[in-house]
């Protein structure tokens, strides 16, 4: 054994089963060396640190646009003279923010966001990054300037980062970009390669960082470019794309490219477990089945999808076909993994007018299926290996207060459902990253400094 620190957890769910008690040995870098239920396995003279409550693997946030946290709550009104609002009008508001935010401000906003994610139980975030250029649309002298700011925010907050710079060249299917998209644009795949290299360099020295890639959407690139970017993906280099989020997108793709978005990807790209399709809201039964069978991950963001009026994902059919899925907070109007899981399920319950739609057979438990599936899909989406809290993995974990009224005294088989359907972030006592405490008693350990900097950054943007 190489463990230099031992923990005694009253109850630990490792991603598959409950271990009570669980003795966890960590090496000097906070990596799990040993998990055992038998105290006799500990070296003589060990004095484990006692951790009360339930210990769960940290949640994976598989889809984030950090800069959009600065506009959370600021787009919930009709513009003067408007009679209606939808995703496309919201997008124009988002473009306005994208044209204003500086590198310093992005770092401050992302650091605040990431610390809040940790406080809610996320220990890793996949940053779907497309804010690349300066306000005039020119590349920074340091091509990875904005990526470097996101990496700095992850370093300061303590969250694990998967950084996925996005290829973004077109403004719509086979149409040029518009001026308000100028901060997102790569002029060519060669230009994108320079961005990828600079972004990967920004991750040097950041613990557990993963360099990913992707295409913003089918709207944002030519057919050959989409195929080329996907061909570069691999298990250690995940590839991400937005797809089939809005009906208008479906109609335009069908009209111009001759196929629906998910259908086009299935027919033209080799989709495997390292591929993540974000939203995939509007799929036919055949697309749902084929995507599930491909091994790709559907990344679902119910709080944002609800906020934008996207629609409901075909969750039950997709899960029944063996589909992998993960959760994300996207535009960050919601930051709780419990809320994402709850509303992913509730959306389908309401549309089907039935309960326990995640349960596929007698004896299934909805909460356990939800947490297990989000973890299993989040790992490949983030480019990590393993299945939760196990030897070789960092001790990235959340501590749940099991004395909370709705959690107290529950049998092990019902704990995760009580947490998902009746719990909230106030039940999180602590969050650990590589064995170190980053959230204690519900507060980020560096929260005051991070918040002060965030306040200074967003003050000029509060005039909407």
Question: What is the end-to-end distance?
Answer: 57 Å
Query: What general outline do the C-alpha atoms trace?
Result: globular
Helix content: 25-40%
CATH architectural group of the largest domain: Alpha-Beta Barrel
How large is the share of residues in beta strands? 15-25%
Describe the fold and architecture.
The protein folds into two domains: 5-57 and 399-448, Roll (Urease, subunit C, domain 1); 59-382, TIM Barrel (Alpha-Beta Barrel), CATH 3.20.20.140. 34% of the residues lie in helices and 21% in strands. The chain contains 14 helices and 20 strands. It has helices at residues 87-98, 103-120, 145-157, 189-202, 223-231, 247-257, 261-268, 285-294, 302-307, 315-320, 337-352, 366-382, 415-422, 447-458; strands at 5-13, 18-19, 22-26, 32-36, 49-57, 59-64, 122-129, 160-167, 170-172, 175-176, 210-211, 213-217, 239-243, 275-279, 297-300, 324-327, 397-400, 428-433, 436-440, 443-444. Strands 1, 2, 3, 4, 5, 17, 18, 19 and 20 form a nine-stranded mixed β-sheet that branches. Strands 6, 7, 8, 11, 12, 13, 14, 15 and 16 form a nine-stranded parallel β-sheet that branches. Strands 9-10 form a two-stranded antiparallel sheet. The model has no long low-confidence stretch (mean pLDDT 96).
Describe the structure in brief:
Helix content is 34%, strand content 21%.
Give the SSE layout:
Blueprint (H helix, E strand, L loop, with lengths): L4 E9 L4 E2 L2 E5 L5 E5 L12 E9 L1 E6 L22 H12 L4 H18 L1 E8 L15 H13 L2 E8 L2 E3 L2 E2 L12 H14 L7 E2 L1 E5 L5 H9 L7 E5 L3 H11 L3 H8 L6 E5 L5 H10 L2 E4 L1 H6 L7 H6 L3 E4 L9 H16 L13 H17 L14 E4 L14 H8 L5 E6 L2 E5 L2 E2 L2 H12 L6
Parallel strand pairs: 1-5, 6-7, 7-8, 8-11, 8-12, 12-13, 13-14, 14-15, 15-16
Antiparallel strand pairs: 1-2, 1-3, 3-4, 5-17, 9-10, 17-18, 18-19, 19-20
Helix pairs in contact: 2-3, 2-14, 3-4, 12-13
């Amino acid at each position: 054994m190489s463990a230099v620190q031992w923990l005694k957890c009253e109850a630990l769910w490792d991603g598959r089963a409950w271990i009570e008690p669980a003795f966890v040995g960590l090496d000097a870098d906070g990596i799990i060396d040993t998990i055992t239920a038998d105290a006799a396995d500990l070296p003589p003279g060990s004095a484990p640190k006692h951790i009360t409550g339930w210990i769960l693997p940290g949640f994976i946030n598989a889809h984030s646009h950090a800069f959009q946290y600065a506009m959370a709550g600021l787009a919930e009104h009709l513009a003067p003279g408007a009679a209606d609002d939808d995703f496309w009008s919201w997008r124009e508001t988002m473009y306005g923010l994208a044209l204003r935010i500086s590198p310093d401000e992005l770092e401050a906003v992302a650091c605040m966001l990431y610390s809040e994610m940790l406080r809610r139980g996320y220990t890793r975030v996949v940053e779907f990054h497309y804010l690349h250029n300066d306000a005039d649309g020119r590349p920074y002298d340091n091509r990875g300037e904005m990526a470097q700011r996101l990496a700095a925010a992850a370093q300061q907050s303590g969250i694990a980062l998967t950084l996925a710079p996005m290829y973004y060249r077109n403004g719509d299917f086979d149409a040029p970009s518009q001026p308000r998209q100028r901060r997102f644009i790569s002029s060519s795949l060669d230009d994108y390669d320079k961005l990828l290299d600079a972004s990967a360099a920004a991750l040097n020295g950041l613990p557990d960082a993963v360099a990913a890639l992707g295409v913003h959407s089918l709207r944002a690139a030519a057919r050959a470019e989409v195929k080329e970017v996907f061909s570069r993906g691999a298990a250690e280099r995940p590839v991400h794309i937005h797809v089939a989020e809005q009906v208008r997108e479906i109609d335009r793709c069908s009209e111009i490219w001759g196929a629906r978005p998910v259908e086009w990807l299935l027919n033209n790209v080799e989709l495997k477990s390292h591929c993540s399709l974000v939203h995939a809201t509007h799929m036919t039964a055949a697309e749902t089945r084929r995507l599930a069978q491909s091994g790709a991950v559907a990344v679902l963001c119910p709080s944002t999808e609800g906020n934008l009026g996207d629609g409901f994902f075909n969750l039950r059919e997709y899960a029944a076909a063996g589909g992998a899925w993960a959760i994300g907070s996207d535009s960050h109007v919601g930051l709780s993994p419990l809320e994402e899981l709850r509303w992913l399920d509730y959306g389908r319950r309401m549309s089907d007018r039935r309960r326990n739609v995640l349960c596929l057979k007698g004896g299934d438990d909805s909460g356990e299926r939800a947490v297990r599936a989000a973890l299993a899909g989040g790992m490949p989406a983030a480019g990590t290996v393993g299945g939760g809290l196990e030897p070789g993995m960092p001790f990235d974990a959340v501590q749940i207060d099991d004395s909370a009224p709705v959690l107290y005294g529950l049998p092990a088989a019902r704990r995760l459902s009580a947490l998902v359907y009746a719990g909230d972030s106030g039940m999180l006592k602590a969050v650990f990253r590589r064995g170190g405490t980053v959230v204690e008693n519900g507060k980020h350990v560096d929260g005051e400094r991070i918040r002060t900097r965030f306040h200074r950054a967003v003050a000029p943007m509060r005039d909407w």
